[in-house]
User: What shape does this take?
Amino acid sequence: MSRRSFLLAAALLVASMAFAACTSSSPSDLPGSHWTVTSINGKTTEAEGTPTIEFGSDGAVAGTTGCNRYSGKVAVDGDKITFQGIASTLIGCDDALGTQEQAFLAALDDAATWGIGSDGRLTIKGGGDLVATPTPQQPT
Assistant: This one.
């Protein structure tokens, strides 16, 4: 192997390791975390009703769709994620919030993978894409 080829291979290895470090997430990153959803399927969430996701330490998940409250269970295995038994209250939502709620719940139902990027945002992908930012917690 020539010196140039060796240097190129070494540079690619370092770059790929740096990329992996910036995008790696651990299942231990989610329990106890709280998130505000900023976009669903590339569309910015409604300002008057922003969905949230709260991961419990016991595999529970809860939050708001922007209109209704929901709760259920979440299973995480590496970068795989599955939401199970999601149930929500049934308050009527206006058209924009109702459409957002349907897209949000569908994205949870069809979720397949997750990750936290170097920017600190949570991304959940599957049948739909959710992007969320950490929600600062208020002291209780």
Summary: The CA atoms of residues 3 and 9 lie 10 Å apart.
